[in-house]
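Tokens for chain A. Residues wanted.
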């Protein structure tokens, strides 16, 4: 078990890492944290103006990094020394701002290692900030979310969590549980007391009206937040030539914040990432699925099914210039009960037959008319995707919300179950020591979220997802 805030200060290593991403850049930063950070920089740094004493904390100095063994100058730099505890890690921290060339950064890193610094593990700086009690675990996780957020709303959620929004909610529930715990402990300590120390109705009321609703709310916020943080996956299906690739292109052109464009897992599908109203969307285009022979048709349907299984939403594309075919209906059937939007494309050359057919075959489903090559109906389609995905939490405002992640959600669900068992126990007049066990379980699960009771294994998993240097 980890006890944040009580990390032994003596004998800590000094760690070092390149804090900026690989590749050429205007500036590259090497970061040191630990008791020897100041000693290491005084070994390597030659200030332009000779210093009259040690480096003043939180001040930039201009000069050179030099290899003291060869007197070779490595780069012209700015150096800042930040004395503990007013630092990211709460240890002494030094940042060396050099030119963003990997060879320079690597050389400075090696020099720091030669002076006794150890290469930092992924996320170790943030882990130190947590272990030294500057931030709780939800804030440490928010740092990772901040680095990887794909949309501005995802970013807002990360900032709210970094500010301690989730921590405050959890702490307020913990405080309420602790006050109930105090009552149970008195009852355990004075079992023969005549006074009815436990007032079951009052405790039940607190749990049912004050504690459970807060937890329930947070648990459902996790689903809402997930949409903005992790996004949704949308699969475009339709027979060849209906305009799937053209639609994908039109969606990408509309979108100015394309994050990545990766080839799909199979040669036949393409994945693109877009941003629809702040929601990251992964679009899978099954354009490669061709159905020229029966055998290939079967493979095509199987692949579509596999892609459908992964997706949160399907866009069923049709060609409005002709009638609905058997193949269209076969694809439609393969969608099953997955959320679906019918996209009637090539609307610019549509026939009236199709319009009647559409209503007949797809009534009850949202139908959006597009002309992918003319960029028409694309924003209506985006609106339809957004409302379908967010429909169940309309009104939820990511600007002022906290959005727990899946780990927090699981822990809160476990905590809530323990609270429910506590209420049942009260109803069955169970003795206070048994009630106290459920209460402690509820508290421990919440403690896992903020990091009071988190195991090393979980910490390794969380910080292992960080990059080196953060
Ligand atoms: P896919 O096989 O489903 O990916 O279809 P494509 O996107 O490759 O499009 C097939 C053909 O239909 C191409 O020649 C496109 O230019 C054309 N096409 C796609 N969308 C439209 C549209 O909205 N209107 C018209 N008139 N042609 C379209």
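Reply:
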């Amino acid at each position: 078990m980890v006890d944040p805030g009580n990390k032994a200060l003596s004998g800590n290593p000094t760690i070092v890492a390149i804090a900026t991403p690989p590749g050429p850049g205007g500036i590259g930063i090497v970061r040191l944290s630990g008791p020897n950070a100041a000693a290491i920089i005084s070994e390597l740094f030659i200030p332009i103006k000779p210093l009259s004493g040690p480096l003043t904390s939180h001040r930039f100095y201009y000069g050179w990094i030099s290899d003291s063994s060869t007197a070779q100058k490595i780069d012209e730099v700015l150096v800042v020394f930040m004395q503990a505890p007013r630092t990211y890690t709460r240890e002494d921290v030094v940042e060396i701002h050099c030119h963003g060339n990997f060879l320079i950064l690597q050389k400075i890193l090696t020099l720091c290692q030669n002076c006794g610094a150890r290469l930092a593990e992924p996320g170790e700086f943030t882990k130190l900030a947590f272990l030294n009690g500057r931030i709780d675990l939800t804030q440490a996780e928010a740092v990772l979310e901040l680095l990887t957020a794909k949309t501005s709303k995802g970013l807002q959620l990360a900032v709210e969590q970094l500010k301690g929004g989730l921590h405050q909610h959890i702490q307020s529930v913990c405080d309420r549980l602790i006050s109930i715990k105090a009552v149970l402990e008195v009852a355990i300590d004075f079992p023969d007391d005549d006074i009815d120390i436990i007032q079951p109705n009052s405790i039940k009321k607190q749990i049912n009206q004050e504690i459970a609703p807060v937890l329930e709310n947070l648990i459902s916020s996790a689903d809402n937040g997930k949409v903005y943080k992790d996004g949704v996956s949308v699969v475009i299906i339709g027979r060849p030539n209906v305009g799937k690739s053209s639609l994908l292109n039109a969606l990408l052109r509309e979108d100015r914040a394309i994050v990545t464009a990766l080839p799909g897992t199979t040669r036949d599908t393409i994945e693109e990432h877009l941003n629809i109203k702040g929601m990251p969307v992964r679009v899978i285009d099954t354009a490669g699925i061709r159905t020229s022979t029966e055998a290939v048709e079967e493979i095509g349907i199987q692949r579509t099914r596999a892609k459908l299984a992964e997706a949160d939403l399907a866009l069923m594309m049709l060609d409005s210039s002709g009638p609905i075919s058997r193949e269209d209906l076969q694809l439609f059937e393969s969608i099953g009960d997955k959320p679906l939007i019918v996209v009637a494309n090539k609307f610019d050359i549509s026939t009236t037959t199709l319009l009647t057919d559409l209503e007949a075959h797809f009534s009850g489903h949202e139908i959006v008319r597009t002309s992918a090559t003319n960029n028409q109906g694309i924003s209506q389609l985006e609106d339809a995707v957004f409302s379908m995905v967010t429909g169940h939490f309309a009104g939820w405002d990511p600007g002022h919300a906290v959005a727990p992640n899946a780990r927090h959600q699981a822990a809160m669900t476990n905590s809530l179950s323990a609270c429910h068992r506590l209420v049942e126990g009260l109803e069955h007049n169970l003795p206070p020591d048994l009630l106290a066990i459920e209460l402690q379980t509820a508290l421990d699960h919440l403690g896992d979220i903020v990091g009071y009771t988190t195991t090393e294994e979980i910490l390794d998993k969380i910080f292992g997802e960080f990059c080196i240097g953060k």
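Residues 200-229 form the longest helix (30 residues). Residues 1-10, 255-267, 288-292 have pLDDT under 50 and may be disordered.
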